[in-house]
From TrEMBL:
InterPro entries: Ferritin-like, Ferritin-like_diiron, Ferritin-like_SF, Ferritin_DPS_dom, Ferritin_prok. Belongs to the ferritin family. Prokaryotic subfamily. This is Ferritin. Residues 1-137 form the Ferritin-like diiron domain. Gene3D superfamilies: 1.20.1260.10.
Length: 168
């Protein structure tokens, strides 16, 4: 499962790269910047790869990365597709953590918790951007605010704030 997740993370990075390029070509520099910033999925891929190799007995397998899906129709479609990819990735991470728990592989269970938290943050972040998009794309006096949304995303945080245990 961990080897499959290496490639899932690589594919996620491909999707972000592809959609960022699409946004950039369509003059959405802020959205492109945000999406390029989320290609850190490659770092997640590498983290899992190193865990497999360093754990002993395992050997990471690198396979071909699937091509990114077709370009989105518009920004709303892009954001919805990104959210779906994040939710799908969360389900895969949950399967790894569940299997580790069932097999009493506490090292992998503990390792997986970092990814569980990251996915919570990713989904929260994308949901927040979709909320902003919905507000920005609602017509007010015949005008939309996509320009301001794009400008705001140029310097937007790449992380979402979520409650942490130490805050309770």
């Amino acid at each position: 499962m961990l080897n499959k997740q290496v490639m899932v993370e690589a594919f996620q990075a491909q999707v972000y790269l592809s959609y960022a390029s699409w946004a950039e070509v369509n003059s959405f520099a802020g959205i492109a910047n945000f999406l390029y910033g989320h290609m850190h999925e490659r770092e997640h891929m590498f983290k899992i790869l190193k865990y497999i190799n360093d754990r002993g007995g395992g050997k990471a397998k690198i396979e071909a990365i699937d091509k990114a899906p077709e370009n989105p129709k518009d920004i709303g479609d892009c954001l919805q597709k990104i959210l779906k990819h994040e939710i799908d990735n969360s389900k895969k991470i949950d399967q790894i953590v569940n299997l580790a728990h069932e097999e009493k592989d506490w090292a992998t269970f503990s390792f997986g918790q970092w990814f569980v938290q990251k996915q919570i943050e990713e989904e929260s972040l994308v949901n927040g951007i979709i909320d902003k998009y919905n507000l920005a794309s609602t017509e007010v006096d015949g005008n939309t605010s996509l320009y301001e949304m794009d400008r705001d995303l140029t310097n937007a945080s790449q992380e979402a704030e979520t409650p942490r245990e130490e805050e309770f």
